[in-house]
Write a structure and sequence with these properties.
Elements: H1 7-23, H2 29-35, H3 42-54, E1 58-59, E2 68-69, H4 71-81, H5 86-99, H6 107-122, E3 125-129, E4 138-147, E5 150-157, E6 162-168, H7 171-174, H8 181-199, H9 220-238, E7 245-248, H10 250-253, H11 262-274, H12 276-283, H13 286-289, E8 296-300, E9 312-321, E10 324-334, H14 339-358
Antiparallel strand pairs: 1-2, 3-7, 3-10, 4-5, 5-6, 8-9, 9-10
GO molecular function: DNA binding
Organism: Crinalium epipsammum PCC 9333
Protein name: Heat-inducible transcription repressor HrcA
Length: about 350
């Protein structure tokens, strides 16, 4: 739901979230008057907080309590009310340069050191995926009609490994009548030529980078389906062993009041220790990194598909070797997170690892 706020309501939402992040206590109008220069009366603040609550951005945990941010409130805070902390980003880059030694350290030691620095600075769990160095390149792609409603995408690598994915034809192409087989086969050949022209010679990790705007308008109805198939294929092909995530900072995050309940801690630890295959796919989500102008992915509360993370926020950014995304840096903590700092931390770490991996030996 799209929510439109006045400048005053935005300032009050920002102040409410900042106060809650700092204190972990429900926020009342008196606290905002005393600690933030909002230049309005407590009655005006209470009225604005009531509007924010009706809009689903704040809620009251108890009828006599102040307000706390909802997942939607945090989402607006991240999308509209903050900017990444540039000063912190520069400090982190300097710290990485001073404490880490790319020339003398092994890759594992470098990642371990990076994860520990981020965990210490953020107070949250740091997750860094080990770089995927798979070098298989695409040799050939072909779309083949299996029956009137289904098509198979076949991918052959330069190592002559074959992957295939089945797809249903778009509804608009099927219509109410039996589709013309010859027309569809001709269109599939044109699409196959387009895919080969744009993807041949590129790595499996680059399947998500195809510029679909180059596809002729008459084939646009195929684009969304093909993009989904290619993303799925790239994930399945590159998915590593579960041990390939560097995790640091569990002790730090357990000090947060949100993790005072034993059951919640146990489910989160089970995810980190025993279900890293699910976690890996969530951290290293290339589709989100391909959003124009978006370097960092932020998943808040219920936006996380894994149940143990529904009370958490995950901030992550990919790092690259050259132009190829090979891994991701993530910070996992409670939704009551100082997001501008977390964004700056993962961006700086991802930039450092990208530069280190890309520098010529």
């Amino acid at each position: 739901m799209q929510v439109s706020l006045t400048d005053r309501q935005q300032r009050i939402l920002w102040a409410t979230i900042r106060h809650y992040i700092a204190t972990a206590e429900p926020v009342g109008s008196k606290a905002l008057v005393e600690e933030y220069n909002l230049s309005v009366s407590p009655a005006t603040i209470r009225s604005a907080m009531g509007v924010l609550e009706k809009s689903g951005l704040l809620y009251q945990p108890h009828t006599s309590a102040g307000r706390v941010p909802s997942d939607s409130g945090y989402r607006m805070y991240v999308d509209k009310l903050i900017k990444p902390e540039d000063t912190l980003g520069r400090q982190v880059e300097q710290l990485f340069t001073e404490r880490l030694n790319w020339d003398d350290w092994s890759l594992e030691a470098l990642l371990r050191g990076s994860a520990q620095i981020l965990a210490t600075l953020s107070g949250y769990i740091t997750l860094i995926t080990i770089p995927q160095t798979r070098t298989n390149r695409l040799r050939h792609l072909q779309l083949v009609q299996i029956d009137p409603g289904r098509v198979m995408l076949i991918v052959v690598t330069d190592a002559y490994e074959t992957q295939s994915v089945l797809m249903q034809l778009p509804p608009a192409k099927l219509g109410d009548t039996q589709p013309d087989t010859e027309i569809i086969e001709r269109e599939l050949q044109i699409l196959s030529n387009f895919l080969n022209s744009n993807l041949r010679g590129r790595s499996l990790l680059e399947l998500a980078t195809l510029d679909w705007s180059e596809l002729d308008r008459e084939f646009e109805q195929y684009a969304a389906l093909l993009k989904t198939l290619l993303l799925d294929l790239s994930r399945r092909t590159a998915k590593p062993a579960a041990t390939q995530i560097m995790i640091r900072g569990v002790a730090e995050v357990l000090r947060q009041p949100e993790f005072s309940e034993l059951q919640q801690v146990q489910t989160l630890l089970h995810l980190l220790e025993d279900e890293q295959d699910q976690l890996w796919s969530l951290i290293f989500d290339w589709s989100e990194q391909k959003t124009p102008g978006k370097r960092v992915s932020v998943r808040i509360g219920a936006e996380n598909p894994l149940e143990p993370m529904r009370t958490c926020a995950l901030v992550s950014a990919t790092y690259h070797q050259g132009s190829v995304p090979v891994g991701s840096v993530g910070i996992l903590g409670p939704t009551r997170m100082l997001y501008e700092n977390a964004i700056a931390l993962v961006e700086s770490a991802a930039d450092y690892l990208s530069d280190a991996l890309t520098e010529p030996a």
